[in-house]
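A.,

Following up on our hallway conversation. Structure tokens first:
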């Protein structure tokens, strides 16, 4: 969040999140019906929260009455370390009706054992690192009380990013942790990319629904429910809602979670040399893993 970072279990996290992360590891007991949305910040967390919530609750609220129309997605899906364990060491989460949905930025290896060992499902979304950094950079600027000279700081922030020294970083370790878990058990971990959702959202809404065992019936498909959910959760719709233009989530402005919502905006802010540096990192760190991004050149 722009504050001091500390390395814990091989991952960089904001100092203020260290205690909540440790409490999450110690006390969170996953149920088999839980759905865990895992991301690095700025990979599409807000979008994934909205989609998962809308899919699961589609028979509880009519889509045009969805709580997402007057609540920020971060308010309807709590984050383990930002919300659930922020103020209490061992909060009572039992009363939340199943299926419970939680999000987290915790890396795969640092997750509470019960998440890995139970039958609960994990959905991971990642994003090409150049857009990820660009989005993170703008988010930090937007939530800073003082605005610094962008050019000077972007270089320093970028250098830290490339060294893995950023929230939930190193990015390659975070991605590979979930990627390998997905390769190991694709029923347990669904691995998504932001760019793929931008390319074909209806396909992915269907895919997410099937993965969490809330598939759409033929009748629903005919009624256009998938398209309605896709529209409800779209950047255009969510970013224009009053609730997302005002208010705060945790210590951040709701509006800062909705900036541009595009693929490739890094080209407007980063130099070709910066892209080259990230590409070299990707080449060496992801080599042989099968994970790749088309959108980095
Ligand atoms: P940009 O800064 O590139 O616009 P997170 O939700 O993980 O914090 O990520 C925020 C990024 O996702 C921002 O990217 C934001 O604009 C984008 N975003 C938020 N809601 C979205 C949506 N419904 N559809 C697509 N992108 C979305």
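Then the amino acids I'd put at each of the 297 positions:
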């Amino acid at each position: 969040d722009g504050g001091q970072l500390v390395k814990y279990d091989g991952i960089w996290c904001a100092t203020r999140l260290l205690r909540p992360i440790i409490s999450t590891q110690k006390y969170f007991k996953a149920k088999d019906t839980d759905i865990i949305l895992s991301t690095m910040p700025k990979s599409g967390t807000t979008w994934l929260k909205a989609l998962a919530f809308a899919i699961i609750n589609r028979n509880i609220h009519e889509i045009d009455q969805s709580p997402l129309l007057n609540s920020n997605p971060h308010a309807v899906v709590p984050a383990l370390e930002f919300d659930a364990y922020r103020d209490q060491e061992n909060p009572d989460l039992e009363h939340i009706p199943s299926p419970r949905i939680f999000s987290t930025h915790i890396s795969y290896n640092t997750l509470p054992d019960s998440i890995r060992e139970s039958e609960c499902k994990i959905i991971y979304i990642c994003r090409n690192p150049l857009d990820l950094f660009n989005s993170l950079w703008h988010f930090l600027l937007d939530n800073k009380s003082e605005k610094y000279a962008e050019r000077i700081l972007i270089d320093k922030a970028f250098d830290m990013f490339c060294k893995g020294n950023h929230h939930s970083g190193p990015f390659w370790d975070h991605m590979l942790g979930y990627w390998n878990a997905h390769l190991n058990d694709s029923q347990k971990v669904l691995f998504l990319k932001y760019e793929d959702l931008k390319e074909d959202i209806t396909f992915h809404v269907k895919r997410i629904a099937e993965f969490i065992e809330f598939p759409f019936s033929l009748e629903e498909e005919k009624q256009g429910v998938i398209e309605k959910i896709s529209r409800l959760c779209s950047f255009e719709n969510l970013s224009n809602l009053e609730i997302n233009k005002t208010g705060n989530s945790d210590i951040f402005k709701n509006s800062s979670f909705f900036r541009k919502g595009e693929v490739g905006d890094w080209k407007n802010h980063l130099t070709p040399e910066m892209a080259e540096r990230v590409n070299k990192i990707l080449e060496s760190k992801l080599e042989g893993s099968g994970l790749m991004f088309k959108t980095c050149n």
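The radius of gyration is 18 Å. Curious whether your intuition agrees with the design.

B.
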